[in-house]
Specification:
The structure holds three protein chains of three kinds.
Chain A: H1 12-30, H2 37-51, H3 53-58, H4 60-63, H5 76-94, H6 110-131, H7 135-144, H8 148-165, H9 169-172
Chain B: H1 2-7, H2 10-28, H3 41-49, E1 54-55, H4 57-66, E2 71-75, H5 79-84, E3 90-92, E4 108-112, H6 117-128, E5 134-137, H7 140-149, H8 159-174, H9 205-212
Parallel strand pairs in B: 1-5, 2-3, 2-4, 4-5
Chain C: H1 13-34, H2 39-44, H3 52-73, E1 87-88, H4 89-106, H5 110-118, H6 122-140, H7 142-149, E2 153-155, H8 159-163, H9 167-198
Antiparallel strand pairs in C: 1-2
């Protein structure tokens, strides 16, 4: 699908400043930061609510995403995540980096990689619920606000990833 | 010095800016200025002159009966007083806790206390902190008791007053109050120390959701 | 003191959703610019060959932190009105660990997975389904885990409150730590690149 070769990525510090300014804008305009995992929870709640509303109402893990009257999808994070898709596509398109591909190291099969991706996703979902967020919401947002729990969370993310990296090396290298 | 700055790479310059801003932070003090408030005296006095800041008990009673849920009612009295009786959809928030409450700056909030003084003070504080929708309930709980819960009809009422009182009685019964009976009973004492067990109300559904779900109103802002 | 604008009632929920969309576009854009649509690039962080994750994250944190601090000090922004997620120390520590495991196994985090999906990465899509499964599963077993989930609540807690140190001092400390980290990251990358050439 690529007709031109992909452009190199930006200077990471410049990209970081850009990301930081977006986060700052969110603080200044909305008084809140970024996030991603909450949007998934809202979507699940919306879906479940359509088929089993009593179940949702009785379970605090989902009920907290219900809105009084309107759909759980009419949520700040849901709209934000939709924007993330658009922004990512925009940037990728401008840099000719949009490609249907499976990212993996050379020593592993595609199927194995996809299996790992799914498992990794499950762990992410669980970790994000326990941690009350993910890297966008807790690490970036909470980090900038010197939120104690967020810094603890962020440090543990790095710790966990580095700890398991050795066992996953065949997937990536 | 200029040549040093010129020779810095982009990364170097970014680092320098960050370092400078971080270093200056050592001397700039606390970022929390939330305890301070700004009063726009002119604006507030204009509002006060037109009574645009006040809501009467009858109006509030009507709103509640109609099931309007676009406002919140705040009871500023101590917990014990609130527990003994409070106007149905009210939440109990003390003046000190107003700042940290879930009140939004642009939502309609009706403040009341015993009679009016505390509510007026709280109103002033909220307005100074930029809460645009703050109102006070004229007369407080005392006026509520007088006009809504235990309304009296004057001796020798005019026909118009009789008609008016019929409506007032309905309102009173809605809130579980005890309207005074008509003709001949006007001399019997208004319940002096009324046993104000909280009237069990069949609240209009939307209001019940608004009142009982007040904690739920806090928007989810995490991730 | 006018910011955060939304908290001062300058606009309503619906416009807030538009803002959300715009913020998301910015976030997705810069995440992709940094290269976070690629699981390989993201995972390389944990093998010290490509420290972009660390560089971008901490540059963003420092940028936003300095912005928030200075806007607040200058009275343009009311910091107390910015939402701070309450701290639940134990579940957050364990959650971070699990998320870290997921990150190096899966190769994306939820935000970067969206960017990956937007640029065609199939593994990002599969990971995203995994996230759905994980959150759904967690919700279903919630009664069993809710005790731990709600353990060690500490309310809204900041590092200045925990350490008793002035906010400004911690700002400086974070800046120093980040700058030091960046220097170290550059060094590590060069080392790993040299090692690869030798090998």
């Amino acid at each position: 699908m690529e007709t031109r070769s992909a452009q190199p990525y930006w200077n990471p510090y410049v990209a970081g400043v850009g990301l930081g300014l977006v986060l700052l804008a969110s603080f200044v305009v909305m008084g809140r930061g970024l996030g991603a995992s909450g949007a998934v929870a809202s979507t699940i709640t919306a879906g479940l609510n359509a088929v089993a509303p009593a179940h949702v109402a009785g379970n605090p893990a989902f009920a907290e995403y219900l809105k009084d009257g309107t759909s759980p999808l009419k949520d700040w994070l849901v709209f934000e995540v939709l924007g993330v898709f658009v922004g990512g596509y925009l940037s990728g398109m401008l840099a000719h980096r949009v490609k249907k591909v499976v990212e993996k190291g050379p020593r592993i099969t595609t199927n194995r990689r996809l299996t790992y991706a799914f498992i990794g996703g499950i762990l992410m979902g669980v970790g994000a619920k326990l941690g009350r967020g993910c890297t966008s919401g807790q690490a970036l947002t909470g980090g900038a606000l010197l939120n104690a729990g967020s810094w603890a969370f962020m440090i543990m993310i790095f710790a966990g990833a580095y700890a398991l990296a050795y066992f996953m090396r065949r997937q990536w290298q | 010095m200029p040549s040093f700055l010129n020779n810095l790479s982009l990364n170097g310059r970014l680092a320098l800016v960050a370092f400078a801003l971080g270093f200056l932070a050592l001397f700039a003090g606390t970022p929390y200025h939330g305890a301070e408030a700004v009063l726009n005296a002119k604006e507030l006095s204009l509002v006060m002159a037109t009574d645009a800041d006040q809501v009467g008990v009858v109006t509030l009673a009507d709103w509640i009966i109609q099931g309007k849920s676009d406002f919140r009612v705040v009871d500023l009295r101590p917990e014990a007083a609130y527990a003994a009786y409070h106007i149905p959809p009210a939440e109990n928030i003390s003046v000190a806790a107003l700042g940290e409450s879930t009140l939004q700056h642009n939502e309609k909030v009706i403040l009341y206390a015993e009679s009016g003084e505390r509510a007026a003070q709280a109103w002033m504080l909220l307005k100074a902190k930029g809460y645009k929708g703050a109102y006070l309930l004229r007369g407080g709980v005392e006026a509520w008791k007088d006009s809504i819960l235990f309304p009296r009809i004057p001796e020798n009422p005019t026909p118009a007053q009789v008609v008016q009182f019929a409506r007032t009685r309905e309102v009173s019964r809605f809130f579980g109050g005890t309207p005074q009976a008509l003709a001949g009973d006007s001399t019997s004492a208004v319940p002096a120390a009324p046993q104000l067990a909280m009237p069990a109300l069949a609240m209009p559904a939307s209001q019940a959701a608004g009142g009982g779900g007040a904690p739920k109103k806090k928007k989810k802002e995490g991730c | 003191m006018m910011a955060p604008f939304f908290k001062f009632g300058l606009f309503g929920d619906n416009l807030g959703l538009v803002v959300a969309f715009a913020v998301g576009i910015g976030m997705g854009f810069f995440l992709e610019r940094a290269g976070f649509n690629s699981a390989r690039k993201l995972a390389a962080q944990f093998y010290f060959t490509d420290m972009t994750v660390f560089k971008v994250m901490f540059t963003a944190i420092v940028t936003a932190m300095l912005g928030v601090y200075w806007l607040s000090v200058l009275g343009i922004m009311d910091l107390s009105m910015v939402y701070l997620t309450p701290t639940f120390l134990a579940p957050q520590i364990v959650g971070g660990l699990i998320l870290g495991f997921g990150f190096v196994i899966g190769g994306y985090c939820p935000g970067t997975a969206c960017v990956g999906i937007a640029t065609g990465r199939i593994d990002a899509l599969v990971l995203f389904f995994g996230i759905f499964a994980g959150i759904f599963g967690f919700g279903e077993v919630f009664p069993l885990v809710s005790g731990f989930y709600n353990a060690t609540p500490m309310g809204q807690l900041t590092l200045p409150q925990v350490t008793g140190l002035p906010y400004g001092l911690l700002v400086f400390a974070v800046v120093l730590m980040a700058l030091g980290g960046f220097y170290g990251a550059e060094w590590v990358e060069k080392k790993m690149a040299a090692r690869k050439v030798e090998a």
